[in-house]
Amino acid sequence: MADAVVSVVNGQIVVRIDGASVVAAIYAQSLETKAQIDAIYALIGQVLEVSNSYGGSFVQTAGGQMLDMIRPGEKPAHVQRAEMQAKLAKMSSGLPIFANRRALRKWRAQKGKLERRLDAGTGSVVKLKLGVGGDSWGDNLAIPQALGNKLYDEFGKGGEGWLSVNATTDSPPLNGVTFAKSGAWSTFDLSADQPPAGLCGIDGHSLSASATASVTWANCIATEFRVYYEKTGTFTWQVDGGAVNTVATDGSGGLGILTITAGLTETAHTLSLAWSAGTIKILGVYATITAKSGAELIKFGNSGLTGYDWTVLTTTAKNAMTAIAADIGLDAAMLIISTNDYRGLPTTLVWSPPSKTIEGLKAIRSCLAVPPIIVAPAQSNALAYQPQDTYRDAMWAYTQAEDLPFYNAHDDFPVWSVGNAEGRWKDDLHFNSEGGSDFAAAVGANLLDLVP
After folding, report:
1. Strand partners, 67
2. Alpha-carbon gap, residue 203 to 224, rounded angstroms
């Protein structure tokens, strides 16, 4: 075994072998904060092995971390691996692009009911509800909004769907709804805070407050709001700046559902919730147009999520997520995962190898009551600690074993460099609106039976 010294130099973890000059470093883009750098440095310990396998040189540490070797005149290993993956991606995996459409029986039945209702022009209200979750691919607007637009164009919009308590600039609500919060909120995010203490929404988020705080959703076209909350503390609600109404919970910590309908017409509304006493926790809101037949897109992705994150859900949290999903009444769901998993560091920070990602899919699937479409996303442009196609293969095996719908977007789209040149990518990891439209058109026509 070579003598090795590990140190941090200019924000990179550096390894010196046998007293030689710097020969290895973790690629800087994989380390986003000094806290990550310090944590990884503490975990590395002793270098175990120097190797030249897998398309580039690296050293393996006691923690299992692979560090890229950088020698004079040599490309870093992550570059060599990326080039190798690009070559491999051009070769057919032999897997189908779409599979197991037959599992979407509930979706097809409900779609048929809605079509007949719209053709008749009269009758009872029929809704068709598609949930889109997973990581940022199910949270950023590109894919969910494109799917929503296809549904609205074909069937009309039946509501705004799920309103998250953690909307951001990159992941705002659908359909032009706006979100704002102020005051002493504490945010729970399943992708960063584990495990949940108490309840969280179907997207793995919640907002808690023990002092003055408020949250507002505006431009919501709805005739009914359902506010999901944990039964602790006291909060108030207000629509369009009208009367302030108080909800005093029983303090049990169970799931509460507040239904707001009085005086709401099919126009844009503003819903505000505010702390009043004790400690309150808001999990999310569902907004619908009760008297209108049509389609709804339920966006419940969580940016930064890995499959591993779903595995840490407590029974209490899963029960709440199951109850919320049942109350909304999904007809189909789609889970897009692995863009964070394959980039994760094999340490205690973020690590979701394919087996753990599948374990996570099983955990969240149990909350949905419908067989979800499992999506292996297109190959993005990042340093891979585990080739992304291994996640595709694991998802394929899982969907075949469980008879679940499968969309192999990994093979359906070209490698990132080609797709980016064609105008599909917003950045290294996410589709833009054009890519989202391509994705929606493909899965819509081949699994959801939507008009091309």
Report:
1. 59
2. 20
Asked whether the bond before 195 is cis by omega within 30 degrees of 0, the reply is yes
Buried b / exposed e over 142-161, threshold 16 CB at 10 Å, is: bbbbbbbbbbbebbebbbbb
**Helices (H), strands (E): how many in the chain?**
11, 21
How long a stretch of residues is the chain?
A: 452
Answer for the pair 111, 412: CB distance below 8 angstroms, yes or no.
Answer: no
Partners of 246 in beta bridges: 236
Strand partners, 185: 209
- Cβ(317)–Cβ(358) below 8 Å: no
pLDDT value of residue 248: 98
Which residue, among 387, 395, 403, 332, has the nearest Cα to 360 in the 3D structure? 395
Which of 369, 434, 375, 379 has the alpha carbon at shortest distance from 405? 375
Can you say whether residue 121 is alpha, beta or left, with left for phi > 0 and alpha for psi between -120 and 50 degrees? left
- What are the angstrom distances between the C-alpha of 24 and each of 37, 84, 119, 242, 328? 15, 20, 66, 63, 52
Q: Please count the CA atoms within 13 angstroms of the CA of 419 that sit on its side-chain side.
A: 31
Could you tell me the two tokens for 310?
């779903």
Q: What are the tens digits of pLDDT across the range 302-341?
A: 999 999 999 999 999 999 999 999 999 999 999 999 999 9
What does the pLDDT look like over 174-217, one tens digit per residue?
A: 999 999 999 999 999 999 888 889 999 999 999 999 999 999 99
The DSSP element (H or E) to which 322 belongs, if any, is helix 315-328
Q: How far apart are CA 45 and CA 31, in angstroms?
A: 18
Identify the burial level of 124 via C-beta atoms within 10 angstroms of its C-beta, where 0-12 means exposed, 13-18 middle and 19 or more buried: exposed
What global pTM score does this model have? 0.81
For residue 270, give every residue at least 6 positions away whose Cβ sits within 8 Å of its Cβ, in sequence order, or none.
Answer: 216, 217, 218, 219, 220, 239, 240, 241
The mean per-residue pLDDT over the stretch 345-366 comes to 80
Rounded CA-CA distance 405/104 in Å is 7
pLDDT averaged over every residue in the chain: 84
Does position 159 have pLDDT exceeding 50, yes or no? yes
Give Cα 24 distance to the centre of its chain: 33
Q: Where are the beta strands (DSSP E) in 174-263?
A: 178-189, 205-221, 224-230, 234-239, 245-248, 255-260
DSSP per residue over 367-401, as a string? Answer: TTSS-PEEEEPPP-SS--SS-HHHHHHHHHHHHHH
Quickly state the pLDDT bin for 38 (edges 50, 70, 90).
very low
Q: pLDDT for 378-421, tens place per residue?
A: 999 988 878 899 999 999 999 999 999 999 999 999 999 999 99
Q: Is 253 helix (H, G, I), strand (E, B) or coil?
A: coil
